[in-house]
Amino acid sequence: MGRIGNIKERKNKQDSKKASVYTKLNRLITVAIREGGEDPEYNASLKTALDKARASNMPNDNIQRAIKKASGEIGNQTFEKIMYEGYGPSGVAVILEVLTENRNRTVGEIRYIFDKNGGNLGTSGCVSYLFERIGQILIEKSELIEEEMLLADSLEVGADDLEADEEVYEVKVTPSMFLEVKDALLKKGYSILDSDIIYKPTNLIHLSETDSIRMEKLIDMLEDNHDVQEIHHNWSKQ
C-alpha cells in the first residue's frame, strides 16, 4: 500500500470512529485556546487544530462548543499534555501524544494496551531519538506539477527540503514555519493532500505477518483511547 493508500485508510478509519475523533479534536481545540487565545491568526496551535477539525468534517456546533469550554463558559476541565514512548511487536518504536485530565488512569490504560499486543511502555527518551520532529506537507504527483518548480516555490516560502516517491511530493518544514509555508503553497495554487507536524522515523522496521496483525491491533486500540491524540511509529506497512 502506497502513501496515498495509507492516508485514505487512516481517513476511512476516522470516518468509522467519528465520535472518538470529535472528542479528541474537542480537547485539542480546548487546550490550544487556553494556551494561546481564541484568535487563530495569532495562535498557530489553534489554527492547526481547526484545520484538522475541518478536514475531519467536524460540525461547526462542536467547534463552537469546544471554544466555549476553553473560555470557561462550559465546564472547567484541565488537560495535561504528555508524550509516552514504547515498543510494539519486534521492537517497533512508538511515540504517543496524549491529552488527559487524569494521568494515572491514562498511563494504566496505555500500559495495558501495549502489554496486550506484544509490546511494552517504555521510559522517556527510549525511542524518541529514532525520530525527527518536522512539519510535513504532502502534495499528490500529477502532470501539472513540475518537481523543480515545486522545489523552488517551497524553498522560496521557507521550506527546508523536498522529497518525492512514486505517488507524492513531501515538503519538509521546520515546525515553527509549518503554517506559514502551508498557507503560502495554498496561495500559489497547490492542492495539499495531507499535512501535519509529525515525528518522522529515521529508519523503518518490517514485520512478519503475525507481528503485523498484532501491530495493527495495537494501533487500533490506541486510536480508540480518547486520551491518545497522535500515534507515531517506525513500522513499514509496505
From TrEMBL:
Any one GO MF annotation of this record: DNA binding
Subcellular location: Cytoplasm
Residues of the TACO1/YebC-like N-terminal domain: 5-73
Gene3D superfamilies recorded: 1.10.10.200, 3.30.70.980
GO terms for cellular component: cytosol
A Pfam family per the record: Transcrip_reg
Keyword DNA damage in record: no
Keyword annotations: Cytoplasm, DNA-binding, Transcription, Transcription regulation
Record family assignment: Belongs to the TACO1 family.
Name the UniProt record assigns to this protein: Probable transcriptional regulatory protein SAMN05192546_10530
GO terms (BP aspect): regulation of DNA-templated transcription
Occurrences of domain TACO1/YebC-like second and third (ranges): 79-235
InterPro entries assigned: Integrase-like_N, TACO1_YebC-like_2nd/3rd_dom, TACO1_YebC_N, Transcrip_reg_TACO1-like, Transcrip_reg_TACO1-like_dom3, YebC-like
Main localisation: cytoplasm
